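Quick one: Aminoglycoside phosphotransferase from Caldimonas brevitalea, structure tokens please.
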Amino acid sequence: MTSTHPISWTDEQRRLAFERWLASLGHRGIDPASVRSASADASFRRYFRVDSAEGSRIVMDAPPSYEDCRPFVKVARLLRDGGLNAPEILDWNEADGFMLLSDLGSTTYLARLDADTAPALYEDATTALVRMQAIDAAAQVPPYDQALLTRELQLFPDWYIGRHCGVTLSDDEQHVLQRSFELILRNNLAQPAVLVHRDYHSRNLMVCGTPGSPENPGVIDFQDAVWGPITYDLASLLRDAYIEWEEEQQIDWAVRYWQKARQAGLPVNADFGEFWRDFEWMGLQRHLKVLGIFCRLYHRDGKDGYLKDLPMVWRYAHRVAARYNGLTPLAQLLEKLAGEQRQAGYTF
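--- reply ---
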């Protein structure tokens, strides 16, 4: 089969190394001529699809000078051992940063989700989430500690406020932001800790099999997993940066998750109202971070595809900030920044 989406290389030596490694996989029935692009992500990793005697496979291209594949390997095994449908690692050329993986298909949750399919797909996603959070991985992954959470929040002033909005905060505004960060982190760090995927959302969940089947969803992009707040991945899932649901629907799915988590013995708050508050505050941390990340991808990396998602993420953050005592000044700051964006000519 001839590639219909030829892949390009900027490093000739790397291309030759890739072709040598691929040719060495003859025992797996790999057809080197079938290589075509599968996807790229926000890092230096690229993914190709290749045919084999046993069906298609995924090839990861992760240059060792930019990407450390060891966390990916470790977490993939943790997830698979925990009963999740993560890619199986079939071959790993650690020295050159090439990996052969099982193929979870090309249909993301985002591509399939609509009002009709969402109930069953989210039921599977929350069931898998409970299963993942039951994995005892505290000693296997880094802690989602105050230092890491703070570094993530700092992306918001560095890239969204300063670079994207072109705003220099006054002393009073800097104090507002610092005080808001302190309140957010106090909540986040008080939550019980479990294994956290960190990007458990519709672009990283693959539709595998029929709804309700144990292989659904396929889970990808988990290499940054940490041990941290129990509400983080649920906030990633239900307040996804790429698809929005009415809050009433979010609460319904959150209740269903919460019931399953309690039945599984996970350390969720026994009071759903308190759990929901933690969910909102955790989501606020994530959404401030994502505002910064999306702007960094544009201004530093030249990737403008994420700019269209900024308004939804802003709404998530503003809604929570406006709802809770102590965060009203943050909501007002977000409103000011949205006005600055409009004046700068950015679509919002």
